[in-house]
Amino acid sequence: MTVGPGIQLQGSAQLGADLLFPTTTLDLVPGGWTCLLGPSGIGKSTLLRLIAGLPTGATFNGTLRASDDAALDGRVAYMAQDDLLLPWLSVRENVCVGARLRGTRPDLGQADALIARVGLSDQASRRPATLSGGQRQRVALARTLMEDRPIVLLDEPFSALDARTRADMQELAAETLHGRTVLLVTHDPWEAARLSHRIYLMRRTGLETMPAPPGTPVRAVEDPATLRYQAELLGLLRSEP
Amino acid sequence: MSPLMTRIAVSAAITALLLGLWHTLVVLADLPPFILPSPWRVATALWSNAGLIARNAWVTLTEVLIGLVLGASLGAATALWLAVSPMARVLIRPALVLTQALPVFALAPILTLWLGYGLWSKVLMAILIIYFPVASAFFDGLMQTPRGWLDLAQAMQATRSRTLWRIRVPAALPSLASGLRLAAVYAPIGAIIGEWVGASKGLGYLMLLANGRAKIDLMFAALVVLATMTLLLHRAVGWACDRMTARLD
Questions:
Q1: How far is B46 from B30, CA to CA, in rounded Å?
Q2: Residue A119 structural domain
Q3: What domain count does chain A have?
Q4: CA A45 to CA B175: how far, in whole Å?
Q5: For the whole model, what pTM was predicted?
Q6: Nearest chain B Cα to A153, which residue?
Q7: pLDDT tens digits, chain A, 241 residues: what are they?
Q8: What residues in A contact B159, CB-CB < 8 Å?
Q9: Which of A84, A96, A147 should we substitute to test contact with B (largest number of B Cβ atoms within 10 Å)?
Q10: A57 CB near a chain B CB, below 8 Å?
């Protein structure tokens, strides 16, 4: 596939009379991972939902454009912390749900290939309730890949997973989403440090661009430079007044 | 003992206990049969009038089943309409609630006047009494689709009708099921009230007739059959609802 386009969001958002975030510029790395790091309730998800075209309840004053100047409609896939699997469908049916919802015929061969890629071939006919949290999030990743969109928005997709599963999922996501423009919203500095090409720290005063992490993603869990960088990010997060 | 056997044993024990209490009450208070007949008298009346009771029970069952199917369908259709149309929510919903302020019982004589003494006035009573619980329960379910699923559907550019049929309706089936379980118990009430107001057959008619002729044992026999019928109907609908929602787990 072709490399995903860059995305630029510029503007401010208001929630009723309150300022949710001041005038802000967010530039997504074309074909790479951009991370939006910040504490809970700061408006990270609102920013992501604005790009996804989902309802936010906030009023956005500003512009949103892709580097190729084409509309974003139909080019964005979305994955959230909750796996959002439909419990009455099998794993395979969940992976194909996008086509079903649009009224088109899903490519079942492609679905099975993606299910195999996330390591769940043996579970393809099972219901989500019979899977572990990590397996369910793998299904959600396969469903996201099935959409085959150049832009992928990830809203804390690994936050609910245990440490080992989270590390595995980060690597799987980095590998399978390679070449796409990814926005990752997270409150976890380790995740940001491992996966990102560019990191924004979101504070009440707006977005701060961090220096790029050392090396290239996905960085090894034991890489000392990444661990040091993660500690610096955590320090910055904690210095928030 | 298997769970099923335990349940049957418990039900049988409770039934025996209640029958025992009933019998003791009749004997100790020395109640005459035209006030409260003993369980044995009721059983005898049931046996000796089996044909008569069965014919009338069949009439009531027909009214209840037609009422249940039509009332549940209309209720479910209304819920779908309200769920997809904000305009309908503004216009129709207050009217729906208002109809509940009218006691359906008070309408029975009017329905009999309009539709006559036959089947349809009772069917309509059953429909009126179950329509609201079904519509209300299903509508609530349809409006409470988890936000995340709707976000996902929107991000996937789902059409509105496919979002409705593939996400909102399946997600609301447990709510519809609780409405249907209520309807199974309410529908016989509607049919019986209809029969009390004006009918020439049915269990409600038979009970009034027996009462008028001081055949209280026959009246109780009809009541026992009605209660059994309602319980079985509730069980059958419950089973069907479980089958329907089993796919959702």
A1: 22
A2: 79-148
A3: 2
A4: 31
A5: 0.85
A6: B155
A7: 678 899 999 998 888 888 888 888 999 999 999 999 988 888 888 899 999 999 988 889 899 999 998 888 889 999 998 999 999 999 999 999 999 999 999 999 999 999 998 899 999 999 999 999 989 999 999 999 999 999 999 999 998 888 888 898 899 999 999 999 999 999 999 999 999 999 999 988 888 898 888 888 888 888 999 999 999 999 988 887 6
A8: 101-103
A9: A84
A10: no
> How many residues in chain B?
249
Is B166 close to A101, i.e. CB distance below 8 A?
A: yes
Last residue of a domain, one of A148, A169, A188: A148
Q: By the CB < 8 Å criterion, does B157 face chain A?
A: yes
CA-wise closest residue to B109 among B34, B5, B25, B194: B194
- The residue of chain A nearest to residue B173, with distances taken between CA atoms, is A88
Range of the domain at B242: 39-246
